[in-house]
């Protein structure tokens, strides 16, 4: 299997500290995908990660460049980080990489969107994948406006399709999650896992085909904080995350 391209999951934090009259600035850089990358590598799947700050300049710009990867995972990265290019910032025409991803899936590629504050529509509605080529090929539709659901009490996944190859044979029950993005499943999508929320149900894992390819919506994090410590320590984590990739690549 060729490497998986993971776009997103990095962030900078800048803090201002004041000690009396003396202020001071500090900055940190964090990567929320370390557990995910570790899990895939334990299952023999190599990952190439492009942090969000690198995507404008480095994310693939052609079908040939995407062909170097077995699947693409978008995780906690807003649409603007992929839509903006050095050329468009300078006022020139450029490639629409969200439409490029849709075309790639249509011709046999595998695309996964993981949940997060900057996934689907996003915690404040600024991720803005609604109406884009990426939303078009996913097995879910984005809701209008902000879509983040915080659930500090924990949401327990319900198995909807126990025989689906992504989850078949995994230890159960699935551990709880602490939040997710609200989405609307399409008719052609298979809701594999969901979470009960008040009087309704929220899709957690939806798998579907698009053209000759496959696309998958995982509506919570691949790491902290929505994905609980219990989930990341679960004995089925590595295989579950790897099975999503294997399914996208028609290997299961």
Describe the model:
The protein has a single domain (4-9, 30-248), classed as 3-Layer(aba) Sandwich (Rossmann fold), CATH 3.40.50.880. It is globular. By secondary structure, the chain is of the alpha/beta class. The chain has helices at residues 34-42, 52-58, 63-66, 80-83, 86-89, 97-106, 133-137, 229-233, 237-248, and strands at residues 4-8, 10-19, 22-31, 47-50, 71-75, 110-114, 140-142, 148-155, 157-159, 177-181, 183-185, 190-197, 200-210, 213-218. The mean pLDDT is 96. It starts with a strand and ends with a helix. α1 crosses α9.
Low-confidence stretches: none
Mean pLDDT reading: 96
Radius of gyration in whole Å, from Cα? Answer: 18 Å
- How many individual β-strands? 14
Looking at CATH, the homologous superfamily is Class I glutamine amidotransferase (GATase) domain
Quickly describe the structure.
With 252 residues, the protein is α/β, with parallel strands linked by helices.
Overview features:
252 residues; alpha/beta; Rossmann fold; two-stranded antiparallel sheet; 14 strands; 34% strand
What are the SSEs and their pairings?
Layout: E1 4-8, E2 10-19, E3 22-31, H1 34-42, E4 47-50, H2 52-58, H3 63-66, E5 71-75, H4 80-83, H5 86-89, H6 97-106, E6 110-114, H7 133-137, E7 140-142, E8 148-155, E9 157-159, E10 177-181, E11 183-185, E12 190-197, E13 200-210, E14 213-218, H8 229-233, H9 237-248
Parallel strand pairs: 1-4, 1-5, 5-6, 6-14
Antiparallel strand pairs: 2-3, 7-11, 8-10, 9-12, 12-13, 13-14
